[in-house]
Amino acid sequence: MTALGASPSRAGGAAPAPVLRSERLAKEFGGVTVLSDASLDIRAGEIHAVIGENGAGKSTLMRLLSGYLKPSDGGLLMDGEPVIFDRPSDAQAAGIALVHQEILLAEALTVTENIFIGREVTRFGRLDERAMREAAAAQLAEIGCNVSPRARVCDLSLANRQLVQIAKALLGTHRVVIFDEPTAVLTHEEVDPLLDIILELKRRGVAILYISHRLDEVERLADRVTVLRDGRMVGTYDAEGLTPHRMASLMVGREFASLYPARLERELAEPALEIEHAEVPGFVRDVSLTLRKGEILGLAGMIGAGRTELFEGLIGLRAASFGAVRLHGRPVHFGSPAQAAAAGLGYLTEDRKGKGLLLGERLAPNLTLAALDRVHPLAGLDLAGEARQLDQAVRSYDIRLRNLDAKAGQLSGGNQQKLLLAKVMLNDPSVIIIDEPTRGIDIANKSQIYAFIQSLVREGRSCVVISSEMQELIGLCDRILVMRSGRINGELTGGAMSESNVALYATSSVAGEKIPEEHAHG
Amino acid sequence: MADVAAAPPRASQGWSIGWGDAGPFLALIALVAIGFLINPDFLSANNIANVVTRSAFIAIIAIGATFVISSGGLDLSVGSMAAFITGVMILFMNWVAPNVGTAAIPLGMAVALVTGIACGLLNGTIVTLGRIEPFIATLGTMGIFRALITYMTDGGTVAIDRSLRDAYRPVYFGDVLGVPIPILVSLAVALVAAYVLYRTRFGRRCVAVGANEDVARYSGISVTRVRTMAYVIQGACVAIAAICYVPRLGAATPTTGLLWELQVITAVVIGGTALRGGRGRVWGTVAGAVILEFIANLMVLSDFVSEYLVAAVQGVIIIIAMLIQRMSKR
């Protein structure tokens, strides 16, 4: 997109001396080694990306470099001199800034107050509001962020909050800036300005460590790429000529042909789920759609486009009204998720940890929670039957666990997602709505989840996949509907299913046929 | 972190009891041992039976509270509810006694049970349909029940009719094969409650709602119904306790049941139920109630500490119990 990504400086001449260097860095927690032998260097004016799957040790490495953790073995060198950071402020003092993945700002306070939190400027013991405000304004201007220093953080968009967080991290001297998945919380169009800021920092000679699992971003930004796998360094590579596909293979440790199952060739005609004139106050306006039997229908759009709310409204989780809803031709109305489940409609929430599973419970109660009446027909629980169900779910969905007494919270993200899928499938739904099927899970599990989704439709079920990952929708779906601001803004099939088309419909009100702004989709 | 793929999953058979779950029972055993060392009379069958009988009252109410608390609620009104139910029951029995004689007692018990269930339903409805924090909602009904009993007794006492007193007496003072009836009743209540909480769909739903309301909602569970039901169970338990204890109390007064809610919550928390919801321990609650009564008894029997400090010691215990819960959470 921007020309900056391909700027000639990335080719680099003679390698400058490293600013920060880690020597055989290792960390173990209670006897479990989570990172070993991590040696890498970060050079001035260079973007060094660190990639790896969840649990590969990226976060641990980042915390070791920024003083949040102390290494069990190995050490750090700054300008060739050994340094020890006992706490984050030591690293800060040495000029290492960390931009956190989550937005850690006090929402009720102003931008200035947040930037200076914990290091307030005082004059004669009194807060020097003006000096701080001016410094904050300068800091914000420097990264091209035009929010007012007086604005309260709670009034800012996520993208602006992220920028404030960067301004906060960059306050003071900084020679090394570590970005921990800075785009994870941002929407597609908010990413570009942030990447520009990072490139600008690089131009000024800052050494940048960029941690991400978005390989397309890494391809655009990085000069060198370090790959971690299972707590070990696979290696450091020149970014020149390193494709996302190659990066993914290095992360997983094997070549994989394709993430997505081969497309099914079949005729789709019979409608499975028809929604007419759906209204969810504040989120969805006049949406109609038809899911055909055996179809995988993708629902694209940005966060806040109303995709999740549409289906939460459909199953009675939030107030909504519908012109008509038909399931396999029969008119239906769902007052509660239980009614929807009984009619054969299953919904997998996007918020696996917050709304999907009881993390502190063992697997069996989690598995059967949505189907208690089905698994336990009598008032008393059929524990033996439940154990059989779990056994079968573990087998059919390849849930990997140490033992069957494990708590749901102890599973990896991918295995939690499989458990959630098994839980919803226990009600034997004919229509399954999967919201963000692979958010935060590693590539091997992603590929499995895609295969599961396809096997569901092969069994004659029908699937709606809501996702913010465009590639996933393109790779998996028969058809994609793109939502924008509560409306369906476009429909893509066949060869028209491309990232640029999805992005166009997701962000622009000008749909394919130049529909006027306010009367789109009439 | 990475999962171990090679090891085949295995389920441990039977019960796996962690140290956290065994805690209240170990504490109880330790307490009995200390009691015996301090004063050998402590372990006399007579004293033990007495103490456990006295604890049965709190135990029965606390079993109900185990449902409310594990479903993520709280009920501060149990003490005044107990007084209110006792008052209603006694007034009703005294009213019908001239006509029906001792048949007034079973009728009174039925009225008490219905009153308790109605009180629980009221609490539950205010919390769920009114969407009011359980703490505030039951603080309100606590005041209401307390004021009603004061009003009903006109600030004085309502004593049970002399004609019924002897006939009713065995419900508290009687025994079957030497086991006092209140102990049998609380055991029966605990058995039923443990079955309901651990072995029924309702129990599963109750704990799920307490552990994470959103997960329960998204799983198709009616949070309103489950929560309300927990308060109804609480009301029924308070009624059962009141029924057992009318002979001992003999009368309803404005101070009946004062501060019992604190003892009840203490018993539940000592027993290992999570105060934030999501985990209920029925037998732990029973142990907790017995522990509280043992401590009070021990302080009376020993000369080290003034018995006026009983509440202080119980206060220390609830704080220690919470600290242990925090630490065992890792």
Can I get a quick summary?
The complex is a heterodimer of chains A (522) and B (330). Chain A is α/β, with parallel strands linked by helices. Helices cover 32% and strands 24% of the residues of chain A.
Radius of gyration of chain A: 25 Å
**Looking at the chains present, what oligomeric state does this protein adopt?**
heterodimer
Kindly report the greatest chain-chain contact and the residue count on each side.
A-B, 44 and 35 residues
Query: Can you tell me the CATH topology of chain B?
Result: ABC transporter involved in vitamin B12 uptake, BtuC
What's the number of helices of chain A?
A: 18
Poorly predicted runs of chain B: 1-17
Shape of chain B: globular
Provide the residue-averaged pLDDT of chain B: 87
Percentage of residues in helical conformation of chain A? 25-40%
Structure notes:
The complex is a heterodimer of chains A (522) and B (330). With 522 residues, chain A is an alpha/beta fold. Chain A folds into 3 domains: 20-95 and 174-186 and 196-251, Rossmann fold, CATH 3.40.50; 102-172, no CATH class; 271-355 and 427-519, Rossmann fold. Helices cover 32% and strands 24% of the residues of chain A. Chain A has helices at 58-65, 88-93, 111-115, 129-142, 158-170, 188-203, 215-221, 244-252, 307-314, 337-343, 352-356, 363-368, 372-375, 383-396, 413-425, 443-458, 470-476, 499-507, and strands at 18-29, 32-43, 47-51, 73-78, 81-83, 96-99, 122-123, 126-127, 176-180, 207-211, 224-229, 232-238, 271-280, 284-292, 296-301, 324-327, 330-331, 345-348, 431-435, 462-466, 479-484, 487-493. In chain A, the strands form 5 sheets. Chain A has a 6-stranded mixed β-sheet with strand order 6-9-10-3-11-12, with helices on both faces. In chain A, strands 18-19-20-15-21-22 form a 6-stranded mixed β-sheet, sandwiched between helices. Chain A has a 4-stranded antiparallel β-sheet with strand order 2-1-4-5, covered by helices on one side. In chain A, helix 4 packs across helix 5. Chain A starts with 17 loop residues before the first strand and ends in a 15-residue tail after the last helix. The model of chain A is unreliable at 1-13 and 512-522 (pLDDT under 50). Chain B has a single domain (20-31, 39-328), classed as ABC transporter involved in vitamin B12 uptake, BtuC, CATH 1.10.3470. Residues 1-17 of chain B have low confidence and may be disordered. In chain B, helix 1 (19-38) packs parallel to helix 13 (282-301). Helix content of chain B is 72%, strand content 2%. In chain B, the strands form 2 sheets. Chain B has a two-stranded antiparallel ribbon with strand order 1-4. In chain B, strands 2-3 form a two-stranded antiparallel ribbon. In chain B, strand 2 (175-176) and strand 3 form a beta hairpin. The chains are: A alpha/beta (522), B mainly alpha (330). At the A-B interface, helix 10, helix 11 and helix 14 of A face helix 8, helix 9 and helix 10 of B.
